[in-house]
Amino acid sequence: MPHDHHDHDHFHHDGMSPSGHPYRADNDTPLTYWQTMEIAVREILIEKGITTPEEIARQIDEMDARSPANGAAVVARAWVDPAFKTRLLDDASAASAEMGFDIGGLRLIAVENTDEVHNMIVCTLCSCYPRNLLGLPPDWYKTRAYRSRAVKEPRKVLEEFGVTIPDQVKIRVHDSTADMRYIVLPARPAGTGSMGEAELARLVTRDSMIGTGLPKTP
Amino acid sequence: MSDTPKDFDGRRWHDMGGQPAGPVKPAEHDFALWEKRVDALQVLMSSKGYFTVDGLRRALEDMGEDAYEKYSYYERWIAAVNQNLIEAGLYTLEELGAKMGEVKTRGGTYGDASA
């Protein structure tokens, strides 16, 4: 998986932010029109008492704290706890909330990879993503190429991600909406029988929960 | 509508599922502070009930295909958030224009202007 940068524990390493993306140059480039608009909108809302700087900072902190590690913890729990897995497949929002991950008003659906079916998720219309469990979506998830092709030639798209799915395995692509998001429950890798939950969670990559990757093997 | 092109299938530009497109380039980046603030404003203002995700999408889709190619994700988002907030009556275009003019006088970088 040449594209997959998450080959280290806990989804961070040198040059990567806690959300697992490389840092982007920030505040010292020339001010743009849209940045000017953001500052203006934010300050007007604050001046009118509609929000506060603290509330905005808290919201950013909450979003920053969401990373694929949250989703990985849910997946690992499902791998070791059959009753939890049943609850997850039945109602992923409630099962995630059980582990302390707030899904908000969204309906979250977990789809399970098996020997017969490989699932992948997309949002063809925009960029809907299980952000409460995985953080903000990667750039490629929002591109025309992924949105257009995932539903038409998923096998080919997966090959571009370095994932080859055997012909006899059916590929099921789930198109997300604003109110209904999907997360893939990847299959537990072989040879992990003796591993505990925390150790298993480290095998679960972000892309394995989007369906464009597979979990790492021990 | 006699001059509707023969290949027009009734879709709008954003409905791109199944359309031909090039290879998926595995681009990744973290988000700049101003982008995180746009995201936070979207979440906060919609959770306060000033607009819905559908309202955000409607504004994004109405910008058209050209904007999708030309502007970045959060550039389009701040435009859509702003439009929804003006429609919700929280402030006027005049107030926005005056504030943007004032912000620009503070300095040449985001860091200076948002201080």
Automatic annotation (TrEMBL), chain A:
Catalysed reactions, semicolon-separated: an aliphatic primary amide = an aliphatic nitrile + H2O
Annotated positions binding Fe(3+): C123, C126, S127, C128
Regions of compositional bias (Basic and acidic residues) in chain numbering: 1-15
Location of the Nitrile hydratase alpha/Thiocyanate hydrolase gamma domain: 34-212
Pfam families listed in its UniProt record: NHase_alpha (PF02979)
UniProt feature coiled coil, ranges: none
EC number: 4.2.1.84
Start and end residues of each stretch annotated as Disordered: 1-24
Keywords of this entry: Iron, Lyase, Metal-binding
Molecular function per GO: nitrile hydratase activity; transition metal ion binding
Family: Belongs to the nitrile hydratase subunit alpha family.
Name listed for the protein in its UniProt record: nitrile hydratase
Species name: Marimonas arenosa
Lineage, uppermost ranks: Bacteria, Pseudomonadati, Pseudomonadota, Alphaproteobacteria, Rhodobacterales
